[in-house]
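Sequence only, no structure available. Ideas?
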Amino acid sequence: ELRGAIAGGQLLLEYQPTVELATGYPVIMEALVRWDHPERGRLSPFQFVPMADDAGLFSELGEWVLETACEEFSSWRRDDPSTLIRVSVNVSLAQLAMPRFSQRIIDLLIRKAISPSRLCLEIAESQLLDNSLVLGALESLRAWGIEIILDNFDTRHSSLDHLERLPIGMVKTDRSVTARLSERPRQ
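Reply:
I predicted one. Tokens follow.
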């Protein structure tokens, strides 16, 4: 079913904004994939992304999300060239380890007439490993001006070493982590 959904237009992207507190304006729109299943209704990625991985469709799904997010972002820019918003897409360790992944991203940005500085790629901290291919891809993407965001950073279980050795420009953490900051003066 998922293979047919990718090819048959049942997938869509919804966008979650990151808002600048000082102005209240959105600065990043994160692309989140959804599946409009003909029988089960709208499915969240938690309901079908694990299946994509099991079915060997994870790369195809990831490519669809990247391509669609860049196409929609390009359309926004055509409608309002003055917009300062950037688009953010989650990428997996498997995608980052793919041969020539960095070049494919750059080729996509050129085709869609998007400046690399307008794209953010998010990788979940739980996926990070000491993998030279992944580190090379992250460094290459960052060198082009693409923002790398470490997603799901959790100071209780995280290695702060990730922040020092990886080419990360932003860190996203769960509200449960920041909510504790005011409870303990030391934090």
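The helical segments are 2-7, 45-54, 58-79, 93-96, 101-111, 132-143, 161-165, 175-179.
Hope that gets you unstuck.
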